[in-house]
Amino acid sequence: MKASKLYKKLEEDFDVANMNDDWSFMNLENDFITPDFKTKYMGLVLDNAKTINKVYTATFPDKEIIQKIIDRDETDVLLFSHHAMEYIASDEGFPFYDIPLSYLSEMKKRRISFYMLHTPLDNYSKYSTSVCFAKALGLKIIKPFCQYDEKTKVGVICRTSLERTEDFAELVRKTVGHEVKLYEYGEKTIKNGLVAIASGGGSYPFVASEVAEMEINLYLTGFTKPLPHFEPTLEFHRIAKDQFINVIGATHYSTEKFACIAMVDYFNSLGLETKFLEGKYSLKDL
C-alpha cells in the first residue's frame, strides 16, 4: 500500500487535524523525526518508507519492540504505536525515554516507518483504549466520560453484573493476566452496578472529581501509585478517599494494549498484513 495513502486514511479516521497532544519533552533535535511531528506531536514520526507492506502495532515503542522488527530483517514496514516514547516505570523521575538515535538510524536504513496516535487513540471511538479494555472485560458501555480537553473524552462508564469490588478486581486480574491493585476506599458493593474506566495514566484529580459527581464508587485505570514527587497522584488519592471511591490499578501497559490489539483488525481491513507485538507491563505502576 502506498504509504502516503495509508497516513491520510489514519488522519481522517482518527480526526488527527482536530486533536491536541504534547510530546515537546522528546528530543526533537535530529533529522530523523518528521517536521510535522515536531509541531503537531502526533501522526507520522518517521517517514522512512514509500510503500508499506506490513504493519506492526505496539503500545510503547520500546527498544525491545523495535529490535523484534529489526531481527525479522524486513523492509517497507510500519510500526504503529500508541505512544511516541519508551516507557520505563519508576518510583521517581520521568517514566518516558527517547528512542535511541542508533535505533532511529537503523529504522531509516531498513525503511521502517513509525506512526503514533496518543490522544486520537484515547478519544472515545471503536478503537479507543478505554472502549477496547471495557470490551475485553465483557462490560456493557453506557457512555463516555473523563473530559481530557474540550475535544476529547478518554474514559467510559460501564455496567457490570458483578456486585462486589473484589470480584470485579479478580475479573480485571484474569483479563490482564497479572496482579492488580485494589485501593478499598469505599463500600465493598458496586453502587448501581456501574464502574468508570480510563485506561493508562488516569490517576488525576479531575478524573476522581468527575467520578464522584456521578456518584460512582468504583474506578479502574492503569497507573495508580501515589508518587511523593508528583502531587496530582497524591491529590487523586485524597479525593478518592474523601469520596469513598474504590480504585483498581492494572498498569499503564495492560489497560491500553487492547486498543493496539484491536488496531490489527483496522489495518487488516485495509488489506495490510498486521501483527501485534506484545510489550511489557510493570507492577511498579500500582
From TrEMBL:
The keyword Repressor does not apply. SUPFAM superfamilies: NIF3 (NGG1p interacting factor 3)-like (SSF102705). It comes from Desulforamulus ruminis (strain ATCC 23193 / DSM 2154 / NCIMB 8452 / DL) (Desulfotomaculum ruminis). A divalent metal cation binds at H82, H83, D122, H252, E256. Belongs to the GTP cyclohydrolase I type 2/NIF3 family. Pfam families: DUF34_NIF3 (PF01784). It comes from the Bacteria. This is GTP cyclohydrolase 1 type 2 homolog. One of its GO terms (molecular function) is metal ion binding. GO terms for cellular component: cytoplasm. Keywords: Metal-binding. The lineage of its organism: Bacteria, Bacillati, Bacillota, Clostridia, Eubacteriales.
